[in-house]
Each structure stands twice: as C-alpha cells, then as structure tokens.
Amino acid sequence: MADRKPVEIMDLASIQAVSDPQISPDGGRVVFVHTVLDFEKDEYFSDLWMAELGTGKVYQYTSGRRKDKNPLWSPDGSRILFTSTPPPGKNGEKKKTQLYVIDVSGGEARQLTDVESGVDSPRWAPNGKSVLFLSNVKRVDRGDSDVKVIDRLVYKFNGRGFFENLRKHLFTVPVKGGKAKQVTKGEFDVSNAEWMSDGKSIVFASNLEPDADIVRRSYLYEVDAKGGDPTQLTKTLMSIGGVSPHPKKRIIAFSGHDYHNGSGTNSDVWTLAEGGEPVNITSGFDQDLGAKLSSDIRVSAPGGLPVWSGEQLYFNSAMDGDACLYRVHMRGGSVEKVLGGRDHSVESFTVTDDGKVAYTVLDTTKPMELWLWDGEKSKQVTDLNKDYVKKTEIMPHEELTFRSSAGHTVQGWLMKPPGFDPSKKYPLILHIHGGPRGAYGDAFMHEFQFLAAQGWAVLYVNPWGSGGYYEEYQAALPGHYFEQDYDDLMKAVDVAMERNKWVDGSKLGVTGGSYGGVMTNWIIGHTDRFAAAVTLRSITNWISFFGCSDIGWTFGKTELGGNWWDMEEEFMKRSPIRYVKNMVTPTMIIHSEEDYRCPMEQGEQLFAALKVLGVPTEFVRFPGESHELSRSGKPKHRKERLEHMARWFKKYFE
After folding, report:
1. Catalytic positions, please?
2. pLDDT in tens, 149-178
3. Which of 120, 162, 160 is nearest to 142 (CA)?
C-alpha cells in the first residue's frame, strides 16, 4: 500500500455518491441519484443516472439543472418523475424546487409545476395521470413585512429555518399539464402522503388537534383526492416514520412506535385494514428499523419504510454494526433476513413485485455503490469510485468488544493510522456519535479516515443507549444520561489501551457531535485524562436548550423525564455547564450559526465560561450552516471544519 496516498480533506471532491436507487417496474433498469461535491463552486451537484441491468451499461441520464433528485418510475415504466432545483437567477435569487417528467426513451424533461413555495415528496397516482406533492402554504398574508409573529411552538426547524407563517399541505397536479390543486387545508401539517391503491383517496400522517405542537406525534388520516375533510384512521398518537398503502388492496402498512418504552422504543412495521385497528406485525422482532449507521458521505434518500413486494413487506435494520434487509408477511409471523452482513450493509433500496432488490451498500473501506439482488445472489452494478479506492490508502477497522461494568456487551471499533508500526506510540481520539440513538458500524466515514491519516488512532463505540441494539438497551438511556453510557465510553478507552500498548495515554483526544457533543462536554467536566477536546454542535445547558431548540420541549421531556420547571435540579444536574469549574482540558467549540437543533447559545455559554476560567479554548462559528455541517454543509466549510479539528488536536498531541 506504499504507493497509495493517505486520505485527505479534498478527497470529498473525488468521491461520487450513489443514492436513492429506483428499479423499473419490469426490473430491467435502475435510475439513481449521482452526487458530487465541487469545492471551487462551493456546491453539490446531483443528476440522475441510469443502470441497464441486462447490458451492465451505466450512464448519466439528466444534466443541466444542478440538483436533480427524487426519481420515480411511472406505473407503466414509460416515464420518470423527478424534482429539480434550477441554478440561481441573474441577481442571485434562489429558485424553488419543482417537478419534472421525462420519457424513458429520452428527450427534454418537461416541467410540471411552478409553485411559489416549491415542492417535495412527489408520488405518482396509480393510473399515472396525476402526481401528489407537498408544499408550503401561507397562513396569513402579511404583505411585505419581515416581522415574525409567532403563535405556534413549531415555528423553526433545523435545515429548514423559520416558517412561522407556513403550513405544509397536500397538492395534486395533472401529468398532462395544468394548475396544481390544493387538497388539504387548515391549521395542521401533512407528511408521509401516499395514494391509496384505487387512486381516489390519499393517506397521510398528521395531527389535527389544537395541541399538536406540544406532543409532536401523529395519527393517520385519509382524504378524498379531490379535497374535503380528512377522516382519522388511527386513535393512538405515534411516531410515524413511513406510510405505504398496498398497491392493490385497501391495506396500509406503516412504520413507527407508540412510545410504550419512551423515546427509546423500537419502531415496528404495522398494518391497518379498512375499519380495523393497527396491527404490529413485527412485535417479536426486537430491533429498530432503518440503516442508522453513521456515514458522512451519505446522500439521504426520500421515502420511508416499509416497502411492498407482493404480500411481503421489506425493511432494513441495524444490529451489531451492520444494516441488513429483512422481510415479513403482511399477516405477520417470523421476520426473515434477506441479505446483508459484514461490510455489506443495505442502505436505500427498492423492490420489484417479483422480489428483485436494487440497493446501495455501506462499506467501511469503500464509498457507496449500487448493487442488485435477484432473489438468490447479489452483484455489484456500479463501480464509480474504483479509481479513488485504488489510489487511496483507506484504513480498515478492528472490532473492539468488551463487557461493561453493568454486564452487557459493548461493541466498538479501532482504526489504526496508515503505516502503523506497533513499536511506536500513537495518540488516540475517542469519537462519540450523535442521536443519542445513532450507531457506528461497518460504514465509510471520511472524517475517521482523515483523522487516522494524521497519524492518530480513532476509537468509536456504541455505548449504552445507542441504536443498533435491542430495545431494552437503547430505551434505558432516557432519564439516565451520563451514567452507564459515560462509564461504557471510559471503559472503552481503558480496554483500547490495555489491549494495544502502542496507544499513548498522555495523548488522548475526545470529540463528538450533538449527543456526542454534550457527552464530550460532560467528559471534560468529569475527567482530565484527555489532552484535548473538540466539541461539535453540542448541548451545555438542558434548561436553555428546552426553550431554544427546535425540539427542546419534547426532547427535554422524553430524554430527561419532564418539564424543567418541575425538575429544575435534575435538568441542571445533567447539564455539563454546571461542572465547568472542573474543566481543564483545552477545548475547541465548533458550532453552526443556523443550528436550530443545538442552538448557538449552547456553544456561547461554554466558551464564555471557559474563557473566564482561563481554560485554553477557541470558538469556531460557521455562518449559514445548520446542524448538518459535517455531512451536508458547504464544501469549503466542511474543509475548514476538519482543518480546525486537526489543528487543535495536533497542537496538544505534539
């Protein structure tokens, strides 16, 4: 591997991202989204690409619009619907995302919509004659005023910004052309909208109750495709992740949970027959739904689980560091593992009626590529990152598993630096995931590879409360933050040092984002064993977080156990800012100025306190960025973020 170059920040521009594969109704072709990062233009560019499964030919299918996404085959397979965001206008004004349709045989795409607020979540009608989509609707016409008048709790959201005067509603538009028609109206927001099989009605998730903002949970509703009052289908408020009506019957499948074990409850697959009650058909499958594994080169795909194929429902689930594909019969019964395993984790996928699966693969040492499973075996369809992988020294990781002080098994991984020499000593960085029910595993992480390329080992662990385990494991964290999870992380460092004598115990670093950020803050307030820390998009004060975060009032209740005014001492006892006088670790604070999930004021509190106390610290603020900086921020900002992290650790490791 001596002729290979180490991973660099600018490698992000070399990696080609494959996402959102959509297999044609006849199973002969797959259209997918191809995304590249451009540092010079400080932008991401996405086009649709096509893979012909019979010939193996892979080629670019659309071009010129910059952001083509969300491809969907028409029911007869003759056309492809997609969304696109045109380039900014001459004066730099941003254009809104619109719907386009293109014949599979080729030619120019035809624009279907020109909606002022833009569109998202499109779906073909079963007869292929119209399309549903969601769009924002103004609640009150405030003229040219830029004053925000807020009367709802939900008025901002990370990555979306402020929308205090908007509601998200359901629209339809004829494919042949014509004006879009608003289907739902009122003081509620629509999500997960899908056509019922007869095309006469649409099912969606929402909450029409006056206190919907406070509980932030949903029911299922059905509305006539021509409009009218929605009919409520379910009685229990749930967290609903995806809605999927049967393509031929009046049966609705959906994913979600009823909070029976708090916020750590696993999602299940449910079915709802007409006039009946929801039935949990995966109640015996003690795993959460979704791929979940952290990856900073992932391009998210729309839509949710589960996916129909005949009378089977397909979904993926992460366990023990891998995400596999499973299926269950619509009437329930045993859950069958279909495919997936070590370094072959199923990310986004689609399934034909006869069970062919087009999917993308998560792999520790390779960026995502498109694969096909024909019902018996898998084969790789694209190899767009072949040259990058061939010339780059991408490091594998070694599993590090141990028994915790509470007697459970903790899974982690250790990535050594390139050119590793066991006779030498190396710094080690503990990297903590977000969530808190995120999960690390067999998935490519450019950030880990870059840190390892600096000559440092990287340790990443799924402590108590992480995703990718059983419900009992992940549901035990709420109300008990910084207890067993903190102990698991500290023991992971101990075990890594005991088993690997080459780890330099005087040069330990710690970092993490979101939950990983608040844990980093907690760690430096409770131990001085780390030579340096970089806290990312973090929380320092649960009381101020309650009122400032876009999810603060619900997250505070579910994760800490109630409202802060009823348990002020508990909220402060678990706030890292209380222990700031104990902090001596040199700490860099990295935060995004438009992070509404973990607001900027959280970082400001920590920075001010550390400065007054004389602890070495820097506050690095990224304008125009959200909570997603490390995964989808502007390319130049992603580059600077990694440069600042490396600079800080290098300063205290040398």
Report:
1. 514, 627
2. 999 999 999 999 999 999 999 999 999 989
3. 162
Bond into 367 cis (ω within 30): no
Instruction: Return the closest-CA partner of residue 653 out of 491, 521, 457.
Output: 457
Dump strand ranges (E) for 330-397.
336-339, 345-351, 357-362, 370-373, 378-380, 392-393
- CB 325, CB 289: distance < 8 Å: no
Hey, how many other C-beta atoms are within 10 angstroms of the C-beta on 428? 25
Residues 88-140 pLDDT 10s = 877 778 889 999 999 998 789 999 999 999 999 999 999 999 999 999 999 99
Q: Is the distance from CB of 467 to CB of 389 less than 8 angstroms?
A: no
User: CA-CA distance, 85 to 80, in Å (whole number)?
Assistant: 16
The DSSP symbol for 3 reads T
Of 374, 328, 358, 364, which Cα lies nearest the Cα of 344?
A: 364
Alpha-carbon torsion 379, 382, 387, 389, what sign?
negative
Alpha helix stretches (DSSP H) within 504-593: 515-524, 542-548, 552-560, 568-573
Question: Which distant-in-sequence residues (6+ apart) come within 8 Å of 605 by Cβ?
Answer: 540, 541, 544, 577
Number of other residues whose CB lies within 10 A of the CB of residue 14: 15
Residue 82 tokens, joined:
């997609």
Query: Binning pLDDT at 50, 70 and 90, where does residue 303 land?
Result: low
Average pLDDT over residues 624-634: 97
CB 531 within 8 A of CB 506: yes
Per-residue pLDDT at 484 exceeds 90: yes
Give 19's contacts (C-beta < 8 A, 6+ positions apart).
32, 33, 35, 298, 299, 300, 301, 347, 348, 360, 368
Q: In which order are the strands placed within the sheet that holds 345-351?
A: 345-351, 357-362, 370-373, 378-380
- Residue 382: strand, helix, or coil: coil
Which helix (H) or strand (E) element contains residue 167? strand 166-174
Instruction: Please check whether residue 138 is in contact with residue 125, taking contact to mean a CB–CB distance below 8 angstroms.
Output: no
pTM of the model: 0.97
CA distances from 195 to 7, 201, 246, 468 (A): 46, 6, 10, 32
> In this structure, are strands 312-319 and 251-257 parallel, antiparallel, or unpaired?
unpaired
- Report the pLDDT averaged over residues 227-251: 96
